[in-house]
Amino acid sequence: MSKIAFITKLRRMTMFEKLLLLVLGAVAAFLSLPIVFILNHAFKPFHELFLFPPTFLVRQPTLTNFYDLFLRSADSIVPFSRYLFNSIIVAAFTLTAVILSSSMAAYVLSKIRFGPKKIVMGGIMLALMFAPETVSIPRYLIISWLEINDTYFGHILPFIASPVAVFLIKQFIDQIPNDLLEAGKIDGASEFQVFIRIVAPLTMPALATVAIITFQGVWGDTQASTLFMQDETMKTLPYFVMSLTSGMANTVAGQGMAAAAGLLMFLPNLVLFLFAQKRIMETMVHSGVK
Fold it and tell me: What is the pLDDT of residues 263-275, one digit of tens each?
């Protein structure tokens, strides 16, 4: 929107609309303060990290914290780059597995008739009630039984079965007319082709929402590294950050590295959300989630 168009639209607004815009702008600015603090805190030099009273904005930005995080940790047994690499691999493969499995399951539950359909849906709804902590022991027993400790699959497997993802995508697919799918089948498309060429493109908003939810869960997960991984080289970035905040960062020297690591953990979530926020809103409208 150009500056002239914005001014014209602003002049046409009523006094109530202008007041509402001002209030919402103030709320948005207030809610963005934690983001501004995280960005500034990571670039603070050593002496600014311990000023009293503490400063909100950085006065003398420096990259020393990132230098310490990347280069000093390289001299340790497991360098920082290994944790980062593990997180990227786990996040990429988990996103792919969750989107594929959840979308196909949602399509079957939404558009295909079979006997125990209501029972399966009831099980999915029941699974939504359980907190992740309640299934920690069963997950550990299953992964130990499968002997996939200290493997990437041990990180990925607990996330593949995602009741939230299946529910969101199913609610979105329910809005697709059956006549559209039948038209594709009349033209000679198989069930899989209907899913790939018709259903998948129309459910992109839901898939984007599932991608964000899954990425946030995987990118910040420490449970797999803590419970399932005994080999230090198979642990992920969140575990490394947790070790900073519970160990080295409690010392004076570790505060800068912890601030830099916190920013690196936060940025991917922010970027992904900014790119997909429109898709999320579309999903919430179509799925009926308030």
Answer: 888 888 888 777 7
